[in-house]
Amino acid sequence: MKRVAFLIALPLVIFASEGEKNYDIVERVLNFLLFFGILLYFIAKPLKQMYLDRISGIANRLESIQEKLRSSQSKRDEALRRVEEAKVNAASLIETAKKEAINIAEKVKKESINEIANLEKSYKDQKEFEERRVTKSVVAELLSDLFDDKNLKIDQKELINIILKKVS
């Protein structure tokens, strides 16, 4: 503190006015330099600390930005890897779907063929049944006509011939 007081008082003692008109530019420059030196002496440490804090703050922000960049890069790489896996899975699913479609088409074709065969068999059975039913109906009608007519006398051979003609 004594040094500071000495430094402040020194310019006053050195450049005291002599009473004449003198342009004191040199003295004023020296006073300014002395004032600036004192000011620098007191403010240098806080300014230096503020400057170092600012540098470390910028470095910390830069580090956090770089960390975020690395994180986003790893997420991007992970997303690209998942996209590639999805493409492979999609190709596999497409192949599986094609195979299943072929299998289903073959199964439907076989079932259709079996169904057609069953329908044809059913049609034949129904046709035979209807033919027998019609035959029975015609025979029953013919017999009822013959037996209703009391005047008609037919022997058994003639009756069989008539029935055979009617049926065919």
TrEMBL record:
Annotated TM spans: 29-47
UniProtKB keywords: ATP synthesis, Cell membrane, CF(0), Coiled coil, Hydrogen ion transport, Ion transport, Membrane, Transmembrane, Transmembrane helix, Transport
Top-rank taxon, per record: Bacteria
Chief place where the protein resides: membrane
Membrane topology: Single-pass membrane protein
Coiled-coil annotated spans: 62-122
Subcellular locations according to the entry: Cell membrane; Endomembrane system
Family per similarity comment: Belongs to the ATPase B chain family.
Function: F(1)F(0) ATP synthase produces ATP from ADP in the presence of a proton or sodium gradient. F-type ATPases consist of two structural domains, F(1) containing the extramembraneous catalytic core and F(0) containing the membrane proton channel, linked together by a central stalk and a peripheral stalk. During catalysis, ATP synthesis in the catalytic domain of F(1) is coupled via a rotary mechanism of the central stalk subunits to proton translocation.
Record note on quaternary structure: F-type ATPases have 2 components, F(1) - the catalytic core - and F(0) - the membrane proton channel. F(1) has five subunits: alpha(3), beta(3), gamma(1), delta(1), epsilon(1). F(0) has three main subunits: a(1), b(2) and c(10-14). The alpha and beta chains form an alternating ring which encloses part of the gamma chain. F(1) is attached to F(0) by a central stalk formed by the gamma and epsilon chains, while a peripheral stalk is formed by the delta and b chains.
UniProt protein name: ATP synthase subunit b
Protein source organism: Campylobacter majalis
Gene symbol of the encoding locus: atpF
